[in-house]
Amino acid sequence: MFNEMKSEINSFLLNYFKNKGTFNKVIYDSASYSLNIGGKRIRPLLMLLTYNMYKNNWKDIIEFSAAIEMIHTYSLVHDDLPAMDNDEYRRGKKTTHIAFGEDMAILAGDALLNYAFEIMSEAVVNSKQPEKMAKAMSTIAKKAGVYGMIGGQTVDVLNEERPMDIDTINFIYKLKTSALIEASMMTGAILGNATDDDIKKMEQIARNVGLAFQIQDDILDVTSTTEELGKPVLSDEKNHKTTYVTLMGIDDAKKKVEDYSNDALNLLDELNYKNEFLNNLINELINRKK
Predict the structure, then answer these.
(1) How far lies 35's CA from each of 96, 123, 278, in Å?
(2) Model confidence over 237-261: pLDDT tens digits?
(3) Furthest-apart CA pair in the chain: how many Å?
(4) Helices marked H in 58-101
(5) Pairing between strand 93-94 and 89-90?
(6) H or E element: which one contains 93?
(7) Is the pTM of this model over 0.90?
(8) Residue 49 and residue 61: Cα distance in Å, rounded?
């Protein structure tokens, strides 16, 4: 199921910008480059697998899964810019601002964000359940904006090269990383006609997954290699960032990953609907090596 879903997502994203543009062709090329230089497709997969807990026809929401990946990718394009992390590699390839220039990278990120909402709006208009679709789009908008990802990124930027306590780090991680994962799983539940209680529980599951994922990222930044990770290691040290690892050491950080992982999986087990593929993906994400 993973492979089929990922293949469908990749095909949609690869074809979306093909044969588009004339004088402005570079914006389509740079947006497509950003989307298609690799990536695990974690957020769209989480969305589709969550939806599949309640309904079997996951291809019906492929547009929403593509939209969440566009939003995630735009955030990475902007995150890599000289004004932010100033990274030259992403997923083992040159970052968008290195490949196309800083100006085109900014515009490519803007384009991806706008395209995401264009795709979702068209899905709402063409849906037999527009209210559910609109609720899902609203959830994604909130989790991607100042209440979520952008809010977390703001606090991250404000505290660059400053020491942070655990409460500040948790605030950043919950918003910057967990929020889009929450949006993905909540959207899958909303579009699958899950109960309000299940949607709320899915939000908490996703929050724990996001925290475990980000702390594991902190660990890999110290223990992995650039070749294995596909992006520069020791970037947190280079940017003087406080992380779980710098605050409490690798062993205690690993214990936190385990705690958040167990909380997520236990909550998932409490739901009446089961999906072994979703359990497997969550385990894989948390224990990943790259």
Answers:
(1) 10, 21, 23
(2) 555 678 999 899 999 999 999 999 9
(3) 54
(4) 62-79, 96-100
(5) antiparallel
(6) strand 93-94
(7) yes
(8) 11
- Which amino acid is it at 147? Y
DSSP-assigned letter for residue 45:
H
Give the span between the Cα atoms of 65 and 145, in whole angstroms. Answer: 18
Token digits for 130? 């527009």
Give the position of tokens 């594991």.
Answer: 216
DSSP 3-state of 152: helix
Q: Quickly count: other Cβ atoms within 10 Å of residue 249's Cβ.
A: 11
Conformational region of residue 279, where left means phi above 0, alpha means psi within -120 to 50, and beta covers everything else: alpha
Locus of tokens 């294995």: 228
Q: Which helix (H) or strand (E) holds 94?
A: strand 93-94
- Torsion 263-268-269-272 (CA) sign: positive
Closest CA to 192 of 48, 93, 25: 48
Average pLDDT of every residue of the chain: 91
Contacts for 282-288: CB closer than 8 Å, 24+ residues apart: 282/209, 285/42, 285/209, 285/212, 285/213, 285/216, 286/209, 286/212, 286/213, 286/216, 286/257, 286/260, 286/261, 287/216, 288/216, 288/220
User: Which tokens belong to 26?
Assistant: 């570079």
| Residues whose CB is less than 8 angstroms from the CB of residue 19 and which lie 6 or more positions away in sequence, other chains included | none
- d(CA 104, CA 92) in angstroms, rounded, equals 20
How many residues are there in the chain? 290
**For residue 142, what are the contacts with CB-CB under 8 A and spacing of at least 6?**
148, 183
**Side-chain-side CA neighbours of residue 154 (13 Å):** 9
Q: Cα separations (Å) of 90 from 86, 99, 106, 189?
A: 11, 11, 16, 31
Name the CA dihedral angle for 284, 75, 140, 273, rounded to a multiple of 10 degrees.
0
Angle value at C-alpha 71, between 74 and 205, nearest 5 degrees? 130
The dihedral region occupied by 213, where left means phi > 0, alpha psi between -120 and 50, and beta the remainder, is alpha
In the chain, what percentage of residues exceed pLDDT 90? 75
